[in-house]
Design a protein that fits this description.
Radius of gyration: 32 Å
CATH superfamily of one domain: FAD/NAD-linked reductase, C-terminal dimerisation domain
CATH class of one domain: Alpha Beta
Distance between the termini: 103 Å
Low-confidence stretches: 72-80
Number of strands: 3
Shape: elongated
Length: 213
């Protein structure tokens, strides 16, 4: 069969079955468009997530307190966690190719000047979870406004120093920003044993219902 005869036969078949040919072509076009659309969406999500992570830069390293060696289990009674100090920051700064070191302490606190306040604080040494992980150096301090009857009222600020305090700041932020009182916060049950119950224990002390003295 000559090429021109083949082309003539193909065109004649398409023309004879115009609707079928149209639907076939339409299905092929929709399929190709769907693949292109899904690929574009996936590539867009990939670039968005990558941009969110790379906005911090590729030359930044965060150093947090941790264990010099691991024992194969988390929260072991015997722990060698050593908190970071300013000496550690200076030592990191002296390392080759380190441009700068910025020590960070995170917290939420109110300025006590101009307020008649009541203060309560609890140390990590009395917390069961702190003893389990082997790091009992730390403190939680809650500052509340003194009401007209002399009792603690609205929570003005919270100070936290110790292991994993950045994981405990959530309820402190909520209490301060919602202008909650110590009586309102003290009604919530804290999970045990956790480091976060130090905040609840400190607030309960302001209500006169401390669990440990």
């Amino acid at each position: 069969m000559l090429t021109r005869d083949f082309i003539r036969l193909a065109i004649g078949s398409v023309w004879a079955h115009r609707m079928r040919s149209f639907l076939t072509a339409l299905g092929i076009a929709v399929g190709i468009a769907s693949v292109i659309l899904l690929t574009s969406i996936g590539e867009g999500i990939h670039r968005f997530v990558l941009a969110e992570f790379t906005q911090f830069g590729t030359n930044l390293i965060a150093v947090t307190p941790g264990k010099a060696s691991t024992l194969g289990m988390s929260g072991a009674v015997v722990s060698n966690v050593r908190p970071l100090s300013m000496d550690d920051a200076e030592a990191l700064k002296r390392l080759p190719r380190v441009l700068d070191v910025v020590p960070v302490v995170q917290g939420n606190a109110a300025i006590e000047a101009g307020h008649d306040v009541v203060v309560s604080s609890h140390r990590f040494a009395g917390n069961g979870r702190a003893m389990i992980i082997g790091d009992v150096d730390g403190m939680v301090k809650v500052v509340a406004a003194r009401d007209s009857d002399g009792r603690a009222g609205r929570i003005l600020g919270v100070h936290m120093v110790g292991p994993w305090v950045t994981e405990q700041l959530g309820q402190a932020y909520m209490a301060v920003n919602w202008e909650a009182t110590v009586d309102e916060v003290a009604e919530f049950i804290q999970p045990h044993p956790t480091l976060s119950e130090l905040f609840g224990e400190t607030v309960m002390a302001l209500t006169g219902r401390a669990l440990h003295g």
